[in-house]
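# nightly structure sweep
# worker-07 picked up a monomer target from the shared queue
# config: single-sequence mode, recycle default, output format = structure tokens
# input follows
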Amino acid sequence: MFPYTWVYYSNDTSRWQPMATLVVIDSQLDTLSIRRYTDSTLFGERLWDCCVLGDGSLIVAGDQASSYIAQQTSFKAMLMRVDAQGNLIWKQTYQKEAGKSAYITSVQDLGDNRSLVGACSQDIIPMGWTYYYRLKPWFIVIENNNGSVLKDTMFASGYAHGGTIYKAMDGGYYHVGRKDSVVYQDPEAAQNFPAYIAHLDTNFNIDWITTMPYSFQPYLKEVFRPRQLQNGDYLVSGTGLQDGTNFVHGWVARVSSNGAILWSKYFYSQANQYAYLADFIERPDGNIILCGWTRNDTLPAWHGENVWLLGLYASGVVLTGTGNVNSTGIKTMEFDIYPNPASETFYLDVPEPGIAELYDMSGRQVAKYDVPQKGKVELRLDDRIAAGNYLLQFTGGESKMVAGKQLIKK
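# output follows
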């Protein structure tokens, strides 16, 4: 079963009216039923996630809009419980701050008649000639019987993205979003928030938070899917838009169970300008299959989109013979570090000249190196760099492709 938003045109063809829709499919992906739940007195409702409970019923998460007036749409977070046939059991709306829109982006069954909900509350911040939306993560635990709130916490400052959150193997939680730690004057720069993954304890306090840095600082870093892997590591996939260009790159990173970035990479289509990595699965052998799409804006609307599949080994290296549907192709960066762990010096083996940057787990740059040639280059670790885990990121000077690997200083 999965939720989606059914958009249709009513009397006014210039307006879209989202309808909350649940599709039930069998193991062969054949449609068994389609149920729509939209209240006709509302402007519209949308669904974003759902989870299956032990009795076969579902908790379905989304939002509803009561009106639409230019940029003043008022949304409330929404949860529904439906039985295995899609019949409505209960429906609730939620709003953390009076007068401010609220959204739900994730839901997961915790057992013991409870579910974990990832949500956010929205501020609209005036900025020069425009404004931007600032989303504050909001974490909720509900009772499955009626949707009542048992616990909720909102991060009021320092964050700018929704509250996508899931239960971790160790009993805590993991959450992804984007940071909002700088006061921006430029409306364009207001969206340039670094992506992060955080581990939270059972009271939603942050145990660790790891920022995902990139040398050319993509204008937009969007996280589509986080998931914990079989060995406890985390994989995060999404997109990054390179500042000053028209290229959108598929983006994926693997993070250890204690917050160290093991590797991070961009992938993009050789045929199209835009590449997105929206979801993935881990196979029993540890290899990873990602799915997404590519887009070519030189073609008419919707005609230039291709499904994109990408297979990776656990190390992040592309699986031989995978990578595309409809011949979209792949471009990516590969390099090696040795020895690793390193003490005073290490070698970087790269396919082209470029720039290497060393980041700590908070996203702070601690070293930067010019790499004047391809092949093996010796680099030195400054004595002031403490022992620990770092992300070494290499950006090709010609290709502008970016990849990162964990470097451990002894």
